[in-house]
Amino acid sequence: MPKDIQTEQQSVSWDPSDIPASLNRTREYVECEATKAMKWYWATKRWKAWWSRFLRAMAILLSTAAGIIPIAVAIRTGKEATPTGLWVSLLLGLAAGVIGFDHFFGFSSGWMRYVITATGIQNALEEFRMDWSVLSAHLSTPPTNDQVLAMVDRAKTFRITVSNMVLDETKAWAAEFQSNMTQLEKDVRASFEQQRAKAEQDMKAHNVFGRPGAIELKVTNALACDGHKFTVVLDGTKPPRPAETVEGSTDWSSSTVPPGQYKLIVSALRGGKKVQASKIVKVDPDAIASVEMALPELPTTAP
What we know:
Low-confidence stretches: none
Strand content: 15-25%
Order of helices and strands: HHHHEEEEEEE
Shape: rod-shaped
Structural class: alpha+beta
Strand order of the largest sheet: 3-2-5-6
Distance between the termini: 110 Å
Largest sheet: 4 strands, antiparallel
Helix content: 55-70%
Number of domains: 2
Number of helices: 4
Radius of gyration: 44 Å
Number of strands: 7
């Protein structure tokens, strides 16, 4: 990569006794500085152009691959629904990262700025040369003070124009870099806050999920059973819970039940015969699952 643009340290010498030579040195100085800046921009834009083309090509290839992979896998396997979503997300994420890399380091934007600045300097240089030729054609021998001042002023204007072009390009680079840094800080902060919120939410969900629930059961016709009692089995617990018998009540409850899905089995004796009913119960963390059941009636026999 070329070094930064450096101007000549010595000022243009002026010899009042040799006006033509002094004017020629002034012309050579401003043309040399303009040519130096123009060549710097043309040379430096090459590596920016290379990186810009490379990164943009990578982004195109990655995004294209993300669109082709599901189709290719579907054709090969003969199935429309294939597990390629993660690969597609990965490729699209890489494509976005490549574009972001280009944007942050300003390869494409810098390439455009350098081309525009170099072209502007080249146009200004050609215009200066033509104006200088016109002014030189009107020089008298010896040249008058007004003629000399007009040529020096034209050289001054041209030199300032080139310097302003370089300054404007530098300001544009600085503004873009500062904007990119600010945006990067915002993105990093937003990503951090998002990850922290997600972690807190996951932690809260984990804590809530770990809390036990409870079951409240009402057997509507329990008092019609023999001995006014029934037996409850909560199937699906680990370790298995023993059966519980309720006497003289229609209600049964159990606290500290881990969240999950269970099967409630209620049995009793009616007329000396065993009757049974069951129901699937879902227990949510830190919640009460209310269940109502009725034991089946005994079939009646004809007299």
